[in-house]
């Protein structure tokens, strides 16, 4: 896929000859998911402790034994349990991540187990240093356990769709400039199209002056300068991305269908 | 009207239905042909450079249909039974060189340290400090508590610690096997040191009667978990004809075949340790005989298990 050359997208070829695109999860989201999971684990152990002491139906010793077993489970099986059933731990679900096998198929029990047993190596020497290094230096941003299990953590497809739409509608405080889509004057290669689309998608993250500077580099395409160059590129991007078609209110029903 | 709009409008209705179908995960007999048709349409859309939104939508449809077909299925209990009866002992024999190495790494130092520490008290300081020694003296100079609740807590403790150590020993094997080798040696040395010291301090009879029962499953399991870790590291060290990532994946599934069994044995050992080893402290002969029978059982299980059934 064209986008794969610009972005960290993984393209998986299926036997039917089409590629499925997986977007590897950004490190920040994975950390956030980890924090949520950690809180859930602590909370559950804590709830069991409180519950056992309040109810007092079982002896103190039994409660202690239960807590020890629950801690053991949380340490080694929490991930395996959730990921083998739902492809994501509650933390990952909350931030919209999903674990799939590197072939794009749902993960197996064995893969889920490997991922959750090998956390210790990624943790070494302290606080997931090894895992982080591995994520930064592998294609698909995989920690060592992912490499051993043959899995990859991706953005859930529904989330990817929602995110690109949110960006293009300028929610979350990022104002997407309102542009009228204009078709590019020349036939462009797929890579060039992908580049313009991603310029349009990410425009809200960059300062206007910086965008102008970038846009002027493409003068051969549009022959404009300054603000106009930027706006023209955005117009091309909007046209190529296909978002603009959803803008008129008459087509709203359709944009909902796309999700 | 552009070509793309034409393409979309003529298929919009069908796509809505397919999206609904994909969402409900229902098993329609049409599914294979729908999937192939959608794959074709996606290829077409990409080939004609239709816009990103359309490609994304078709891509998501194809992905969810794809995953309804290419989905590995599993039957947990049937597999577990077969694993314990056949696959696990076979895996141990298949990996006999690595298992042998792991046994050497743990039992060698254990035997040597037991002998050294029971004979040469001047060595004790190197491994067991005085606080640890005092604690060992205290806990082995009296019989274990025998009420059920205490034993139950101990059982949970044994499961958490010992199975946890198995997993730890396995996981660190990913560091080219170094972690597993370290844990095997360390456990061998430490267990041997404790056994030797307790024997030297005169609490030997109580100690050996206590550990006899669960020693077989627990120590063999520790060795096998270490072997699983070494197996894991071996995939990286000696990938053979495969690229290292792939060799790692293959040796991971081979290692898991050892690890599951090891964890299960440790889990069983926790029952023995909690509900047998601490009881009848005076019937020493009986404990030794039971321990010996355990060793015989574990070794013959690993040596003979799964030899008959051919599949």
Structure, explained:
In chain A, strand 1 (10-13) and strand 2 form a beta hairpin. Chain A is elongated and about 80 Å long. Chain A starts with a helix and ends with a helix. Chain A is mainly alpha-helical and 259 residues long. Chain A has helices at 2-6, 27-55, 60-76, 78-86, 90-95, 109-117, 119-123, 129-137, 144-149, 157-169, 190-202, 208-216, 219-222, 226-241, 252-257, and strands spanning 10-13, 19-22, 97-101, 151-155. In chain A, helix 4 (78-86) packs antiparallel against helix 6 (109-117), helix 11 (190-202) crosses helix 14 (226-241) and helix 12 (208-216) crosses helix 14 (226-241). In chain A, 36% of the residues are buried. In chain A, 60% of the residues lie in helices and 7% in strands. In chain A, the strands form two sheets. In chain A, strands 1-2 form a two-stranded antiparallel sheet. Chain A has a two-stranded antiparallel sheet with strand order 3-4. By secondary structure, chain B is mainly α. Helix content of chain B is 81%, strand content 0%. In chain B, helix 10 runs parallel beside helix 12. The longest helix of chain B has 34 residues, at 204-237. The N and C termini of chain B lie far apart (62 Å).
